[in-house]
Write a structure and sequence with these properties.
Bestrophin, transmembrane helix, cell membrane, about 140 residues, about 70% helix, chloride, elongated
Length: about 140
Amino acid sequence: MALSNEQQLLFEKLALYCDSYIQLIPISFVLGFYVTLVVTRWWNQYESLPWPDRLMSQVSGFVEGKDEQGRLLRRTLIRYAILGQVLILRSVSTAVFKRFPTLLHLVRAGRQYLEWAGPQGRSGPEAWPETRSDGS
């Protein structure tokens, strides 16, 4: 898309105006702000990823039962949390996406089973603990 003569003239004036102030504010100073902004954004996104560690310690503390049923329930809830983590990381990490491009790859790796489904048509791992806590 080409600029009209008037737009070209305005762009040249803007470039000359910016060039006159380039000596006042060094480009490395401006670049430092930009890099700080990008790294801060990335770090905030990284920190907002849910990690299953805290959930796992809470599950092991609050889900009672030293019998087989309690052990299986704790293990199942933790598996759901790990599967949820893998599904989240698939959307942000190319390495994880290459390892698990489809849900069938998760099934083949033993991370998910085809018959898993949640209540009322919700089928994500965030919905599955609801069915497990009801005793089903």
